[in-house]
Each structure stands twice: as C-alpha cells, then as structure tokens.
Amino acid sequence: MALLTVTDLTKDFGGLRAVAHFSFAVEPGEILGLIGPNGAGKTTVFNLITGFLRPTSGQILLEGRSVVGLRPHAVTRRGIARTFQLVKPFPKLSVRENVTLAAFSRLPARRDAEAEAGRMLESVGLADKLESPAADLTLAEQKRLEMARALATRPKLLLLDEPMGGLNPREVDQASALVKRIRDDGVTVVLVEHVMKAIMRISDRVVVIHHGEKIADDAPDRVVRDPGVIAAYLGTRVA
Amino acid sequence: MTRAAAAAGVLLLMLAPPLLTGNQFFLHLGITVLLWTLLGVAWNLLGGFAGQVSFGHAAFFGVGAYTTMILYLKGGLAPWYGMILGGLVAVLVSLPIGLICFRLRGPYFSLSTLAVAEIVRLVALNWEGLTDGPVGLLITTLPQVSLGGRAVNWESKVPFYYIIATLAALAMAATWRLSRARLGAYLLAIREDEDAAEAVGIDTVRAKVVTLALSAFFTGLGGGFYGLYYRYVDPDAVFPIALSVEMVFIAVVGGLATVVGPVIGAVFLTTIGELFRERFLVGHLIFYGLFMMLAIRYLPEGIWGGARRAWTGRR
Fold it and tell me: How would you classify residue A220: left for phi > 0, otherwise alpha for psi between -120 and 50, otherwise beta?
C-alpha cells in the first residue's frame, strides 16, 4: 500500500485555482521529486498535505487514514514532517533547543528530548553548533537544522521544500547526500526543488506540476524528455 | 543553590517593609508596587513568554474585582474567598476570549483583545442589575477575622501588604515553574515562529489558551485584591484601557519573559509615575510617555534583561 495517497486534490484561492484535481501516491522508501515552474502549486500542495491549508476538495490519506482537516501539529504527530521554503528556525533559541522542541512531541522528559536532539544534530553535521542561536547559522546550516528538527518528530514521511535553494554547488552535494541518507535510514522523502541536476540525480521518481495540474509522473530520465514537461518549462515553440 | 538563595532574598525583600516602617504612605506605596508586580507578572506569562501582546487584560482585572465585590455585597462571601473566585471567573471569561482572539495573529490579535476588553467594560457599565453601573460598588466594612487569637486590623495597611506580597510571590513562583516546564519551552517556540511551532507538533492554540487562562487567573486575583483594598470599584476604575497598557509597560520595561523583570518594572514605573505626578501637575503623562520611549529604545530587553546580559557578558 502507498504511504501517502493524494486523490483529486483541489485548492481555490478566491477565483484562482492553485491546485486542480491533483493526484499522486508516495510509496514507502522512495524519494519523490515534485517539480514545476514558479507558481505551479508545489508549495501549496505541501501546505495542503500538512494542514497549513484546507483543501477545497479532494482526499489525502496517510497509510489509509485521512489527514484532511487536522491542524498542522496533529498532522506532524501522525507522521508527516516538513521543512519550509523560507527557513523558519526559532531564531533566538539555541540550535539544540530548536530540535529539542521537536523531540518533545514524542519524548516528554527534557533529558530524553535533549539527547534525541543531540543525535539528530550529529546526523546532519551540526554537532559543533549546539549552543549557537539558530539566527547565527549560515543558510545551508539553517536548512540542515530544519531537517534535524523535522526528523526529531520521527516522521514516516518527510516533505522538504527546496532544501537546496540558495546553496552553493558544494553545499548542494552535501544536501543531496543527506537526503539520500535520510531515506536509507527509513524515512520516505518528497522534495520540492528547483535545482534540477540534484533532483534528477537523487529522485526515484518525479512528478511534474504545472498550473496546479499534474503533467508528468515518471522516472527522472523519462520526465526530462517528456515534450509536455519541456513545453511547460521552456514554452511550446522550443518543444 | 544560588537560585534558591536569590529567591529567598527576593522573598525577604518583599516581606520586610512592614517590619521596618509603620509609615502608612510607604506601606501604601509598597502595596501599589506589589499589585502592579502581580499584574505585570501575570501579563508577562502570555505577553513575554508566548509573545502574545494583549491590550485587554483590564477585562480580567475588572471581572476579578467585580466578582469579589458582588459576592460579598450580594452573597455575603468574605472577599478573601471572593478574590480566589474572582480569579476563577476571570479564567472562565478568558476561555471564549482566547478562542476568539487566538484565531488572529500579531497586531490583529492585540487589537482584538483591546476590542473585547472594551466590550466587557461596556457590559459592566450597562448591566446595572448586577454591577450598579457607573455608580459602582462600595464595601463599608470588612468582616471580622482573627489570626492566632488576635483580630486582624483592617484599618491598618499591614494585612493588605502581606496579602498582596503573598499573591505576587505566588505568581512569580508560577512563572519560574512555567519557564522550566515543557509548556514554557513551547511558548518560546510560539513567540519565535508560530508556523514552525505547529510544524514540530506543538498545539499552539491549546498552549496559548492555557497560558491565557493562567494569566487571567492572576490578573483576576489582582482585581479581587483591588476591591478588597480600596473597597470601591466602578467601571472607570477597574476596566480602563490605561490599566491594560500599564501592565504591558511594566513587563516590557522590566524585562519580557523573565521572572524578576516585572518586579523591577513595577518599582520603577510606580516611583517614576509618582515623581512625575508630583513635579508636573499638568501633563505628567507626556513625560511618562517620553520615559517609556527612551526605555524601549535603549533597553529593548528591559531593565532586568539588559542587566542580565551585561552581567553574563562580562564573565
């Protein structure tokens, strides 16, 4: 059975249809890339899945159970964690405290939560920054902090919103390696990304969204040759 | 250990004045400072820790004051019990207010608290059957109480001093406890970024509603104490916007999200307020406002926050 099944998802903002009858499934253990031109509706799909927005219509099932209508914290507790396109650390709190807060959702005792936070931060390579305020980290470090924070909730499914946006090539490689390792540790990953080289390299499958509709759903090497996808990105004359 | 010593020191400082002076004016000043401390501490729970700036806390103060007065005058319940019930009724009032206002964020939340407090004030003003409206409620005599075989002298300020000192100390202890609990950590997360707090599994609405209730409880107690001490309440005395704003000032000037900050804020603003009133009979509020602006500009973390930073920075 699919881990996440999204069926006929639609979201209207007033007269604008941001997501239109969008369906896709995520299999356990895969890395699924969700791509599309700017404004295609990728982040809206994430916000719908995680309860930050309520769908106009459609169904979202995690392991067969609906998560529609749950508030974001309840979705997180069901096992879907996320990061944000524009990073949202708790800026004045320490790196350790940032992740400890996330571990609290499962571990009520502070000592346990802090130990868990330490492990998570070690795994993303921030073990030497534990006491720094999150605001003092570089963008690449803040993105890794957000991943550690999301992982500390022990998700089944991790939604990463542009984990590589704004990073330099070396940092992109590090982030790619980290995403793969997270998957190898047993967490299913969906990522929205604009850095095509990276997403094509690490995704098992790629879903393309354009004007809120799905226009492709296939292996990366086939998606890049899809005439519909090329048209969406470059315009029809080139295709 | 040093924390325990510091707490004992603060407690002694709070309890000592009646032993050192019989001067009723100084005791009155002490009572005023401690009442403002209680209110500042209560407001700080929500405004300082959770970053939810309420401009409507006078609603809880007034509800606490009126509950205490009405229960005594119409039900014969001694005001010290009424005070506690006043706190509890303030909690009840806070629940719908929280559920309405917490749908909004940031400045919109703050404005909605201002509006709700005005609504509560107008209800008190117009529900004459319960509140006697603008005439207000007056207690002429307080019931007899004996402590250790001696009748408590309600004409002296000393018993009032000890009552309000105890309440302020309790509120500070509750703040200290909260700052170490998981809820305290959640509130800081909410203050820093509400979306991120939800994303890591924190039920932000619940955390805020619980904190508002706690904050309303202590504010309502303060209102009840006001009724007991002044023996007179009317809507202008216990529901004004100025009262809500003063609570904000005390916490901000003292130090947001700290245990001790509001005490310092209360001492400072009460004495400064009295000084300005004495010096500049006309327009003393202008100078008071000017002082507030300077304090916020140059000590954004408050007096206590700034002092703490200077101290840890030097070590």
Answer: alpha
